[in-house]
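Re-run with default settings, no changes from the original entry. Doing this only to confirm the output is reproducible before filing.
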Amino acid sequence: MQKKPFLFLFAFLLLVSPVLQAENITVAAGGGYKRPLMEIAERFEKKTGYHIDAVFGHMQQIFSQAQMTGQISVLFGERSFFEQSGITFASHYPLGQGKLVLAWRKGLLIKKISDIKGSSVTKVAMPDDKKAVYGKAAGEYLQKSGLGSDISGKLLVVSTVPQVSSYLVTGEVDAGFINVTDAIGVQDNIGGYLPAEQSYYTPIFIQAGVVKGFENQAGVVALMKFLREKEAIAILKHYGL
């Protein structure tokens, strides 16, 4: 007898689900921007009633998903990756400039990035330079700084920024290259982080790109408007954008 209210509610939701789904906005972003995007989504949903379904991964994953499903309406990521994606965008909205940092685990002290050459650092993680924006930036930085050859035997390449951050938090690696946004998100669980010299990697311009065909949807229009409001701008600034 106790299960009947639940079953009735479940049946009701099945009946109205097409209506509910019509109000959803599907967005995708590089994994390193999960924290600010989820905070923005939460505030946006409370303010407007539109629901955001979010997908995260490295940029090649989200581009593939956008092309295969045709359901992703807004992508958050780096401008040059958008230009190579094969996806047609109706418009772009700049969110800020991304920054590469070197972060390290708790219990380790790093005063300058070149300290990763020392014996106290045995493993350095970075995202895949072919798939992730900050992997590409880290690769450029290591090459131009001259550190690449010095630490080649210590490098661990993983798929995404959050994977690097996770390894830092658990202490599985000593140091890792991530974006400042993710570093801010995990700063209480790591030893610290330092900014990488920006002249050593291509500038990273983070944007929200509206996929062509979705630009007139009410929820998407509302989201783009919300990104220009003080509430969203404050979240982006908090995370280093």
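Confidence is low (pLDDT under 50) at residues 1-22. The domain at 9-98+204-238 is CATH 3.40.190.10 (D-Maltodextrin-Binding Protein; domain 2).
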